[in-house]
């Protein structure tokens, strides 16, 4: 992936770069909120399946509690220059009910299968409704590259 510095990318290039990053990166910041406890943010490993982000967390974690109470989440790739922000609703799958294809792909990417662990885990799937991507000030305008689940440009 090439960094273009302060050169403004068109929407199609931003989409391509974003999809490339989603396919190869490992970590995503997950922001959740609970009606009584407020906001919570944590980094998790993630898998992009071409349509959705899959993450996994302990079934009793603050993240798991929050997405059950309030499924709206925000996700951010960990780069403050090459920003990618996703927003959507979380769908929860207990580790014994997760679709096999998603769990196998997650295990293959990370060399870790939560389904084989002693404790209970929760897989969280987020289909983005909004995606914003920008590199620096020249790209602030037009940074929304997905709106209402549809890619722009």
From TrEMBL:
InterPro entries: F420H2_bilvrd_red/Heme_oxyg (IPR052019), Pyridox_Oxase_N (IPR011576), Split_barrel_FMN-bd (IPR012349). This is Pyridoxamine 5'-phosphate oxidase family protein. It holds the Pfam family PNPOx_N. The keyword Oxidoreductase applies. Keywords: Oxidoreductase. Residues 27-134 form the Pyridoxamine 5'-phosphate oxidase N-terminal domain.
């Amino acid at each position: 992936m090439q960094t273009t510095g302060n050169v403004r990318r068109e929407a199609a290039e931003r989409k391509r770069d974003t999809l490339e990053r989603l396919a190869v990166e490992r970590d995503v910041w997950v922001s959740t909120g609970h009606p009584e406890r407020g906001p919570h943010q944590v980094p998790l490993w993630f898998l992009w399946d071409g349509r959705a982000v899959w993450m996994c967390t302990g079934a009793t974690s603050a993240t798991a509690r929050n997405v059950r109470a309030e499924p709206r989440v925000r996700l951010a790739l960990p780069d403050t220059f090459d920003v990618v922000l996703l927003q959507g609703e979380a769908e929860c799958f207990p580790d014994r009910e997760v679709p096999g294809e998603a769990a196998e792909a997650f295990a293959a990417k990370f060399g870790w299968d939560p389904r084989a662990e002693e404790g209970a885990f929760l897989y969280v799937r987020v289909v983005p409704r909004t995606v914003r991507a920008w590199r620096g000030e020249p790209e602030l305008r037009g940074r929304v590259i997905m709106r209402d689940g549809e890619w722009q440009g």
